[in-house]
Amino acid sequence: MRKSQPNVRRVSRRRFLARGGLVLGGALGLRIFPTASYGATQRSGRIVAAVSERMLVLDPADHYSISATSVLRHIFDPLIDVTNDHKFTPALAESWEAINNSTWRFTLRKGVTFHDGTPFNADSVLYTLRRVRDNTKLIKAFVYQDLDAIEKDGEYGVTVTTKRPFGSLPAHLTMLGMLPPGAAGREDSFFQRPVGTGPFQFAGWTRGEVVNLAANPHYWKSGIPRVARVSFRFIPELSTRAAGLRSGEFHVIDRVPPDMAQTLKASPGVKVQSLLGLEVQQWLFQLAKAPNDNLQLRKAISLGIDRSAIIKDLLLSTARPAVCPIPPGLIGHVNLGVKPYDPEKAKALLRDAGYQGQPLEFVLMKDLYPKQLEIAQAVESMLRDVGVRFEIRNLEIATARQLRSAGKYDMFFSGWAHLPHDPDWYFGQWFTKAGAVGLSRYYNPKVEQLIAEARLPDPRIRAQRYEELQRILWTEEEPTIWPYYSQAIYGVRDTVRGYEARADYYVLLSDVSVS
Amino acid sequence: MARYLRRRLAHSLLTLLGVSVLVFVILRVMPGDPAKMLLPEGAPESAVEELDRQLGLHRPLPVQYLIFVRDVFQGDFGQSFQYKAPALQVVLERVPATVDLTIAAMVLIVAAGGPIGILAAVRPGTRYEYGGMVFAVLGQSLPNFWLGIMLILLFGVALRWLPTSGFEGWRFLILPSVTLAAYPTALVARLTSSSMLDVLGTDYIRTARSKGLANLIVILRHALKNAVIPVLTVVGLQIGALLSGAVVTESVFAWPGVGKLIVDAIFSRDFPVVQTVLTLSAATFVGINFLVDVLYTLIDPRIRYA
Amino acid sequence: MSTASARPPAGILLARLWRISPMLVVGGLILLVVALACAGAPALTSADPIKTRLGDRLTPPLGLGGTSTHLLGTDNLGRDIWARVLYGGRLSLILAAGSVILAAASGVLLGLMSGFAGGGVDDLIMRAADVQLAFPVLMLAIAIIAVVGTSPLAIVGVLALNGWVIYARTLRASVLSIRQLEYVEAARAQGATAPRIVVRHVLPNAMAPLLVLASAQFGTMVLLESGLSFLGLGVQPPQPSWGNMLAEGRDYLSNAWWLGTVPGAAIALIVLGANLLGDGVRKVLDPWRNV
């Protein structure tokens, strides 16, 4: 039966082109994966989502890509899910608790099976967590180095101790799909055709181009998924994604910039869904380099940037001025006030700072953030008006990052999507001495201390510490400009039912149907 | 002849060696660290070092090169950094799409460029010549991405005659191959026309004409044969450009080809994939040029003495 | 006095050129007008090509809903496109001309060396040409630009590196076939040196294809520069060039087509002028036609 699968896929794809194929494709799908007898609904239809970021691997532990996280969430279940308002909810773990500052206990869901029929239990969790901790070739390994013992506590319980407090562990676990323990020792072949407990089964892929999934008829959540098949296509070129949506070839596209959103709104059969994203823009100063080491100059630059003009005219009001580094909804978000625009005060501060008009290099990682080049040019123009000379360097990513590591920049255009739904990683890497040595050269022992304390599992302590350290960053030191929080904007065909635009840029299709 | 071909073969191998060394060295002196490109921004330095070690990048450069050469002779092009799979497999998966696109574009170039050029040359001062001129100018001045997006908006979105992107059948081939072929077709048309004009003005063609040979026979038998050499040169060069320069076209049409793969691999510093693509494409390129040279010697035996 | 005496010959020359080849005159005039317009940009517009005006963004050209303030409309940052095309043209034309000259000069030189010297020199140069062609420009571009930065000189270097091979090959083939001609062999037998053969026999014969190549390449170089901008390796914003204007207009083709189309049209005009000029020159220099 499995052998005939690729054939069927090809047939149904070709049929899909003929535009009569949705029904037939669904029917074939049902024949291949007979629907379970218990309470499963009749599934039909195929959804095609086109996402901007390429997905290159099928191993949940071996990437930090948002698109791979989205796609693999359909094949694998993590222990914990996260909702759009940043609440952690049970997935394969029915419950979890911090027993003390460095011990977590997870109680697992019973009656779940992998696509190949093997049962899910504590062995799966042990294998998955130990693998990501011990195999340092895996991209996610460095995050899990803090795990100490990972032990079975009955058939459906797991206890994890950590080397230091790891309050963001539940958040990290939302991005880590659970693997069948049978994959041990044959990972290479396993990830050619991965098997999970998720709502869809892997049906095939063209590396970096498309992933095809077919409904898992035995999924533990009843009524899910709602369609017979799903395809993810990876299309970095915006015009191409938008054209495919307008022509009806795609049902959902992500990362729509504001101007394109207006075009899409005017297109028949297409709607636009958006919400404030889990992302803050950040423009880093190189703090070890004159003149950026001067607080007065940094303040002057901040005062010379008209954030509301950028938001209103360039982003067409699809962003909100930042009031602290952590975006709204996330633990630690606090209103510390919008940074003002005051060109006169900026000029005065520049005089005080003794700035001589030397050019400052503003480095961008090419094409990484929507509209970044336009925003950088607008900023350059605004700063020229107050007397600061900026030179834009729009460089391919690897070169730009190399310049950043070497400290050869004055301001660096960057952004931070707060995955995995927790600020610990962000502050731990960008504002500790060890992390910032390759970034902005920021160091403040007091802030470092607060970041360490904010790793405790108690959410109240965490929120308080984050507030305190953000106050230092936002009002006292201004080592970085955080201009605005951006919206996540999606284009969706009007035949799609139940699509939820996600703040974390995931594209999740398990609960979505198409008419 | 055999000696000449043997020498050309030796040259081809030398070229391959040159390419492989150059690729290897340039990749490693280019700024940017593969491990940093794999890890998320702000990953700790210890993680970067560990990953560098896992990727074998901690070894001295000559050692890395020798290992690479030894492995290549065993058919092993290494493991792709970002795809976590054998680089050769990653590349070969994309070869069919690239070959299809290249062949379709070549057919267009030869089928359209040649005749347009000949028409423009044999009918000087007519609308054929001016039409050919307009075509040559447009073809040479429209940027690939502009043309591609416009074709998508027209035939994919407005008219819905053709699919906008991807590769799932021959209909998907039409827009990308037109986009890719536009520039070389215009160039070939122009070169054919100017070499034809040159040849048509020569004494022996005039003689042939004065002897009363029919115009068509003169064109086909005498003029075309001589006009084809400079055109062949350029077509040979354009094949190389098509193979490596299809990047923009592939991006615009989300075409699963090698062009996009290599650009992504260069940008993310996926050394094994870059090395594999360049070794293979250099081999293809060298092979094609070898064939073009052989064709030369058949068409114009004087070159053989070179 | 001197101007008065210089004028009639110039006029006569132009008239004679027009008789031989109107294409040459038209092509030359197009290039001249565009070049002069770009050089005289400050006289043709008072708008600042760099200063952004966010409130004015994406106004369409005059006649399509725009006003006479912005003849060709404004771009995504509210800058006047007419001003940007003129100022951008300066850089684009200089980069293209510089790279064609550099590519042609080095290509011709290497081709001649290759053709005359033969043997090891020939092998070396031709292998270098093969390696060059088999090697993606992009990678060299990244490496070079990462080391020396995106200065105009670096861009000229990258473009020329991409263009020299075709001249070298053409010249070499030309040398090889001309060397076999009886009258050239005769000249050699009489003691003519290589430079003399080059000047008397090789260059006149190779001139026609060379000029066609160079004129075609001129437009190609403008396009290639836009390719470099597309990949973030070209002229850095906010400094306009036709290439980066095209690249920046890419995401606006479906809602503000003039952003990419205006610089595209400028490039087409240049390609047209260069092609006409090239064909015209070829006709003028054509050794048989003038007999």
Question: Which secondary structure elements does this structure contain, and how are they paired or packed?
Answer:
The complex is a heterotrimer of chains A (515), B (306) and C (291).
Chain A (H helix, E strand, L loop, with lengths): L4 H13 L3 H12 L13 E6 L14 H10 L4 E3 L5 E3 L2 E8 L2 E6 L13 H13 L12 E6 L4 E6 L6 H5 L13 H4 L9 E7 L3 E6 L13 E6 L3 H9 L5 E2 L4 H8 L4 E16 L9 H9 L3 H8 L4 E3 L21 H11 L6 E6 L6 H15 L3 E6 L1 H10 L4 E7 L6 H7 L2 H4 L8 H9 L5 H19 L2 E2 L2 E10 L2 E2 L15 E2 L1
Parallel strand pairs in A: 1-10, 1-11, 14-15, 14-16
Antiparallel strand pairs in A: 2-3, 4-5, 5-7, 6-7, 8-9, 9-10, 11-18, 12-16, 12-17, 12-18, 13-18, 19-20
Helix pairs in contact in A: 1-2, 9-11, 16-17
Chain B lengths: L1 H28 L4 H5 L6 H10 L6 H13 L13 H6 L2 H28 L4 H15 L2 H15 L15 H27 L2 H8 L4 H31 L1 H6 L5 H10 L3 H29 L7
Chain C lengths: L1 H19 L1 H18 L1 H4 L36 H37 L1 H16 L2 H12 L3 H28 L2 H8 L4 H37 L11 H8 L8 H28 L6
Helix pairs in contact in C: 1-2, 2-4, 2-11, 4-5, 4-7, 4-9, 5-7, 6-7, 7-9, 9-10, 9-11, 10-11
What class, by secondary structure content of chain C? mainly alpha
**Largest pleated sheet of chain C:** none
| CATH topology tier name of the largest domain in chain A | Dipeptide-binding Protein, domain 3
Shape of chain C: flat
CATH architecture of chain C: Orthogonal Bundle
Measured by residues with Cβ under 8 Å of the partner chain's Cβ, the largest interface is:
B-C, 63 and 56 residues
What's the mean pLDDT score of chain A? 90
* Ends distance of chain A: 29 Å
Number of strands of chain A: 20
Shape of chain A: globular
Number of domains of chain C: 1
Number of helices of chain A: 17
- Given helix and strand content, the structural type of chain A is alpha+beta
Number of domains of chain A: 3
Termini separation of chain C comes to 36 Å
Q: Which value, in Å, is the CA radius of gyration of chain C? A: 22 Å
Content of β-strand of chain C: under 5%
CATH class of the largest domain in chain A: Alpha Beta
Percentage of residues assigned to helices of chain A = 25-40%
